[in-house]
Amino acid sequence: MNGWTDELTRARLHVVTGKGGTGKTTVAAALALALATGGRRVLLVEVENRQGVAQLFDRAPLPYAEERIASAPGGGEVRALAVDPEAALLEYLDMFYNLGFAGRTLRRMGAIEFATTLAPGLRDVLLTGKVKECVRRAGKSGRHEYDAVVLDAPPTGRVVRFLDVTRAMADLAKVGPVKGQSEGVVKLLHSGDTAVHLVALLEEMPVRETLDAVAELDGADLRPGAVFVNRVRPPRLPAAAVAAAAAGRVDEAGLRAGLVAGGLEVDDDVLAGLVDQTAEHAVRLRMEQDAKELLAEADLPTLELPELTDGVDVAALYELAEVLVGRGVR
Amino acid sequence: MNKLDVDALLDDPATRVLVCCGSGGVGKTTTAAALAVRAAERGRRAVVLTIDPARRLAQSLGLRELDNQPREVRVDGFDPPGELHAMMLDMRRTFDDMVWQHAGRERAEQILQNPFYQTISTSFSGTQEYMAMEKLGQLVAADEWDLIVVDTPPSRSALDFLDAPQRLSTVLDGKLIRMLSAPARAGGRGLRKIVGAGFGMFTKAVSTIVGGQLLQDASTFVQAFDSMFGGFRQRAQATYELLRSPGTGFLVIAAAEPDALREASYFVERLSTEQMPINGLVANRTHPVLAALPAPGALAAADRLERSGDAPLAAAVLRVHADRVAVADREKRLLARFTRAHPGVPLVGVPALPADVHDLDGLHEIGRRLAGE
After folding, report:
1. Which of A123, A125, A264 best probes binding to B when mutated, by most B CB atoms within 10 angstroms?
2. Which of B51, B47, B37 is nearest to B139 (CA)?
3. Would an 8 Å CB–CB cutoff place A269 in contact with chain B?
4. Could you give the CA distance from residue B148 to residue A222 in angstroms, rounded to a whole number?
5. Is B330–A309 a contact, with Cβ atoms under 8 angstroms apart?
6. What average pLDDT score do residues A252-265 get?
7. Which of the following CATH numbers is that of domain A6-234+292-326: 3.60.21.10, 3.40.50.300, 3.30.420.40, 3.40.30.10?
8. Is the pTM value of this prediction over 0.95?
9. Residues 119..158 of A with a Cβ closer than 8 Å to B: which?
10. Residue-level pLDDT at A151
11. For chain A, how long is the longest CA-to-CA vector?
12. Where are the domains positioned within chain A?
């Protein structure tokens, strides 16, 4: 399947996960910009204390507050929030217990870290709880404050445990305010309002991990959204030449003649180097083709993003967002 | 550029432990395995401790089951002058073994059945790092290998390997757990005076959230554990000291990407603060240019050929070349930036293999590339 679907357009919470090193923060940021295009307001949330969003947009570390980080084409805006579990716990306890000054003291003593570490699920409940609050929050006009929320989630290996608040809660309180809040989170995450997107590269390992994650999401009754295939490089070789080149067979005499026709005289070393590079390229193309076929097993909408040779800066994010808008993201 | 000589490092009998660190997704496990293969090929008795290897890589090392013990790698056609052993960490089992080893039967069973123990031995953040260190300590103590190569857990940050065990021991050893779980004891009152009524509310809030039973289980567990080991903190400290002892060195693995190199920088700075020896940086999966041909000329020729349509293969080959030059330039720029910030850290680039590696031949090839062959 290719491109964005209407079902995905209806989602309000876009969770972005992927194997480490696939560029999931970049994709999450580009997706937020794409969704904001045309005048919408989008919140980009990170939860792993990495300040990856701030680095990507080349700004100082984000405080625990929703700040505008970019404007989107057509008048939209993206705000960003780095959720800190300690701050979320304090904010949360404050609502029910009015801790005030004592809360700050407890924080200084490390009591908050203690509580979030003692009950591993608590941390995730607090983070997803904050995300839910942002998704559901009403703005001034009575509509939702954010048209969409994009969550830069933990990597595929940990994402289901992170989202599976039901299981985390089984270990925690059976009653009380946390229970109430987590029920709301469970409802949101398992509804049509949420889509869990996966970022993959056209390599065997990331693709296998993507398929595993899709199965795991299905098993936990969470809805896989789209697959973003990141860093796709343009195929340069004519399809007919790939198989032979991958096996190291390149017509050197013909190549040399072709180069001469283009005005290039090369010595044997350069020619051998060009042949080796071409063979590597061909092997990679075949591997990418295999990876594509494997990825098709996931049977999910797929969107490709190009490799950016100059690296990812703010301008590149807009470029990627434009690609996504072109593929139907809205 | 200060070049890292991997063979000299592997051959040096003084090198006893090599720790491979780096952020997730940079190829730590594969690099650790390739280093051990290379060491065995160069005559050393080597063991690699992998944490969470991909299934096919594990199979290539003969690691079909998790038995938490090193096994010699025996594969047809692989007959190194030295020896290669490999193991995969099973953190739960390492923890269980640790308990069995140090507690009497009755006590051990009590601990193993404690619900809190079951939580921390499987899902506590930091347990994997703690147990990796514990296992490393055991391998060193066994004194059966002359080189131990260690992979580190797949955390978001390379620093977690150093920090997580300390964090775990701070939580489990800390005064808070004692006071929260036994608030009637004397220490509790002192603290209450400082934070006032807030502490009572906090205790209430925490036990509402995590449940009073969990706190009770945690307390029982910590007391039992204390009497066994003299506390988590001392044990974490002991393994930490091991990392500072002579013969131990660190290799930081990074991809030639800004994020991975930023993590590598943090880690290098941290190692020097801790006075831990850094052997070098492995820049994984680089794309050096194999043909000395300037890119602008190649592109101009490709344009001419495409216009004429005469030699599609030659045009494609030139495009491939220009792409490769662009990637290589970017990688060189990023690595040069790292070297400017850390001129004392030797560096080696490992050219990417075009396909994934999941057999000993692949590991052998990566070993050659690590050594710059």
Report:
1. A264
2. B47
3. yes
4. 42
5. yes
6. 95
7. 3.40.50.300
8. no
9. 119-120, 122, 155, 157
10. 98
11. 81
12. 6-234+292-326
Query: Is residue B184 predicted with pLDDT exceeding 70?
Result: no
Q: Which tokens belong to A103?
A: 């809360």
Question: Which value, to the nearest 10 degrees, does the dihedral of the CA atoms of residues A131, A135, A137, A138 take?
Answer: 170
- pLDDT for residue B175: 62
Q: Counting one residue from A and one from B, how many pairs have CB atoms under 8 Å apart?
A: 221
Q: What share of chain A is helix, strand, coil (3-state, %, to 5)?
A: 50, 15, 30
From the list A20, A106, A171, which residue is nearest B202 (CB)?
A: A106
CB B263 within 8 A of CB B23: yes
Identify the helix (H) or strand (E) that includes residue A280. helix A268-296
| Chain B residues inside the 8 Å CB shell of A288 | none
Q: Which CATH architecture describes the domain B6-168+231-289+332-370?
A: 3-Layer(aba) Sandwich (3.40)
pLDDT digits (tens, 9 = 90+) for A24-33: 999 999 999 9
**Shortest CA gap A43–chain B (Å):** 23
Q: pLDDT tens digits, residue range B13-68?
A: 999 999 999 887 788 999 999 999 999 999 999 999 998 777 778 888 877 765 78
Q: Which two tokens stand for residue A173?
A: 């309180």
Q: Which residues of B touch A22 (CB under 8 A)?
A: 25
Across the range B343-362, mean pLDDT stands at 91
Residues of B in contact with A309 (CB under 8 A): 323, 326-327, 330
One-letter amino acid for residue B76 of the chain: D
Q: Does A104 touch chain B (CB under 8 A)?
A: no
8 Å CB contact of A20 and B315: no
Beta strands in A212-290 (DSSP E): 224-232
B115: confidence class by pLDDT, cuts 50, 70, 90: confident
Task: Return the domain boundaries, chain B.
Answer: 6-168+231-289+332-370, 295-330
**Average pLDDT, integer, range B311-329:** 95
Average pLDDT across chain B, whole number: 84
State the Cα–Cα distance between residues A97 and B55, nearest whole angstrom: 48
In terms of phi and psi (left: phi > 0; alpha: psi -120 to 50; beta: otherwise), the region of A208 is alpha
Cβ–Cβ gap A273/B305 under 8 Å = no
Return the higher-pLDDT residue of B142 and B179.
B142
Span A221-239, pLDDT tens digits: 999 999 999 999 899 998 8
| Residue of chain B minimizing CA distance to A119 | B210
Does B310 sit within 8 Å of A258, measured CB to CB? yes
**Model pLDDT for residues A280-299, shown as the tens digit of each residue:** 999 999 999 999 999 999 99
User: Look-up: residue for tokens 């193993």?
Assistant: B112
Q: Across the interface, which of A102, A266, A275 has its CB nearest the CB of B202?
A: A102
Structure tokens at B141: 């103590």
Contact A261 B356 (CB under 8 A): no
- Residue written as token pair 């620093």: B159
Question: C-alpha angle with apex B235: B232 to B240, nearest 5 degrees?
Answer: 120
List the structure tokens of B127: 């347990």
Among all chains, which residue has been given the structure tokens 């199979």?
B59
